[in-house]
Amino acid sequence: MEQRIFDRSGQRVSAVGLGTWQLGADWGEVKEDEALAVLEASVEAGVTFFDTADVYGDGRSERLIGRFLRERPDAGVVVATKMGRRTAQDPALFTLDNFRSWTDRSRRNLGVDRLDLVQLHCPPTPVFSSDAVFDALDTLVAEGRIAAYGVSVETCAEALTAIARTGTASVQIILNPFRLKPLEEVLPAAADAGAGVIARVPLASGLLSGRYTERTVFPPDDHRTYNRHGEAFDQGETFSGVDYATGVAAAAEFAGLAPEGASPAQTALRWILQQPGVSTVIPGARDRDQAAANAAAAALPPLPGHTLDAIRELYDRRIRPLVHHRW
After folding, report:
1. DSSP collapsed to 3 states, 187-206
2. What value does the mean pLDDT take over residues 40-62?
3. Under a CB-based contact definition with an 8 Å cutoff, are residues 163 and 8 in contact?
4. How far apart are the C-alpha atoms of 210 and 78, rounded to whole Å?
5. Helix (H), strand (E) counts: the chain
6. Cα–Cα dist 314/2, whole Å
7. Helix-helix angle 288-296:32-44, to 10 degrees
8. Residue 26 pLDDT grade (very low, low, confident, very high; cuts 50, 70, 90)
9. Which of 14, 290, 294, 305 sits 20 to 30 Å CA-CA off 282?
10. pTM for the predicted model, two decimal places
11. What pLDDT does residue 4 have?
């Protein structure tokens, strides 16, 4: 597996990482042994970067990763977690004392003295402009509670504000063939600054796998059922903000662009990995086979120019008119 570097922190991460939202909550039930099998299969395939959050299953995802790493101390995995979504989204609550409390809980969940990477978890927009917030994050590094910090954002404007902070090691943003806006400014700015880019929601909540139709029914506890219009959190986190019917139709076209020997999902991941400035992409997985298939995308040859052009044309025709002004 290709390893890439967050220049500002010097941390090396696999080109394809693993997102572990599924292992905590909001995607239907995943049993503990199944979750551990996903982590094991990912490491076997060369993955060295796990992304989690304190809010995923209210700590379940962190605890599962902690158990796995105790059983596999040789795994060599960088674990990124997030903080700030277990409380009211009030900028006044983003304080050093709360940061200490939140990171202490994550350290207990993960069973470590120092967290590899802690990301602000899509906080209120004013937080990104607060000197006190970033001073507090610097203090966490100085105290040895965390090795580095980054941000997870909803909008390109938030990403650019965070990248301008010299201590920001990474920015996590939605990027996939149905969400191209970050290509214009965020990726070049991050590359110039040496900040890593973590591409999340890479398959548009599964749309780009090509497995869903308009008749697909998701479980009631799956955010693809209850958050299609932003009822619980930002709409952009579910199907990348694309309405479901449009997304299904566009995904069917996208599937036809997959090269021989590559699935639609692998094609989407390969497309992301080719974007200059991307450090790692973090697809989720519900079983060993999905984890292995996702990791295998890193070994695919680069997509040819005509495929890249076709993906852009599909986006411009079907997706851009609906969502490009947002996020």
Report:
1. HHHHHHHCCEEEEECCCCCC
2. 96
3. no
4. 30
5. 12, 10
6. 29
7. 30
8. low
9. 305
10. 0.95
11. 97
